[in-house]
Amino acid sequence: MSQIRKKSIKATIWIYVGFLIGAINTYFLTHKGWFSTNQNGLTRAMIETSQLIFAFSCLGTTSFIFKFFPYYEDNLEHKKNDLLSLAFLISLFGFALTCMGIFFLQPVIERKFSANSMLFVQYFYWTIPMGFFVLLYNLLESYSYGFGKGVVTSFLKETMLRFYTFCIITLKILGLINFQVFVGLFSLQYAIIVLLLAFHLYKNNQLWISFSISRVTRKFKKKIISIMMLTFVVIVVGVLRQSIDGLVLAAKQNLGKVGIFGLASYMVSILQAPYRSLIAITIPLLSRAWKDKNTTEIQRIYKRSSINMLTFSLFVFFCIWLNFENGIHFFNINPDYLEGKSVFFLLGIVTIIEMGTGVNGQIIGTSTFWRFELWTSLLLTLLIIPLSYILTTNYGIIGPAFANLISFTVYNTIRYLFLWKKFNLQPFSKKTLEVLIIAVAAYFITYYAFYRLTGLWAIIGNLLLFGITYLFCVYKRDISPDLKPVVKNFISRVFKV
User: Within a domain: residue 237?
Assistant: First the structure.
């Protein structure tokens, strides 16, 4: 587990450097007078649309890459490894089909969005090159997981990507480029990290390209086709359920609501940093553990990922929740974004549920029962799309948040029960309940201590009191098995003990 811990910490550090830059970007995009809520909403809509283009274009190749990587690596010479080139050619074909679909759906897109989100219609075609580079990066990222490069991909995707965005936002604020040029540069952000990751792999002699069909491909041809067909649906419905909120808000409300929802979603994403880094690191380990039938290792990863991520997500959630309104006012953010407070609360609860159930999706997805992930993903999509549409139509911006809460609670409950009944794997212990009690108690202590204060002193007081109370109790009660080794290692390095 120390291997996972070390890599996860490194990846999380880069993710949080990225979040720091992302926080500055978010501040610039939401500050009064620099970007309107509609312009900020456009950037969110572009990201979500480009993710959909990737999902329809990849044809399931990303799952094929990390699922079969050990088989190609263990049985082929590097120069005969056709894994990446095969995935690239299939995805290129998928991208061409997706572009044709966009062309034929153009009248529908204009009809659905022109009334409330004309800015999105105006710049829609910039999402096509953006989606193409998202596709290329996801292929290289999945391929890099096999080499244990979760730290590198986390740096590029979470830090370098945001630094590029910071640069073009700064150019726009300084008046060196107009909004139209900004949108064009924004659509090319993934192109930068594609080039950097490809160069890194090439430099380390790990960019294996072969256009000859290998014996591994021939041997597993039927399984490869089967997994790509089924996981294609998983990826599409997965991205669709993540994008549906913004797209429904753009169609039924306006881009301003997308921007407000996007700020709340960004704050929630801070809770997910360890989850995102852990996925990159555990996927190859879980694939190898299933291949070796090492369920003991899988159980250990499952339990530790659950308690570690739950502990972290509760800490960050309450830090933000205690300071949401004070932060908006103190940093001079457009007061329209206060409407996102209830959205943050509901999405935060969803994320805590997701984090608390550990890497269950990755465990199922790398097992021989990966088809179950397809059916649960389909169920989630069948729940979330109509719920999001109906609740948004009737309740506005809070609708998609409620849709997420209902759908993901059902989704994670089913996955939890499946792993428990099928493999006798479950992530919870008495520490799970204990950390929930500690978090809620620390929140109420902090809230009643500073609820009359406003401004900077309230923010500092909330952070210090909650942080000290929560972390002290978590440390003393030994909630996380990885916290004490990290703290002791930190102390020994700083003080040379």
Answer: yes
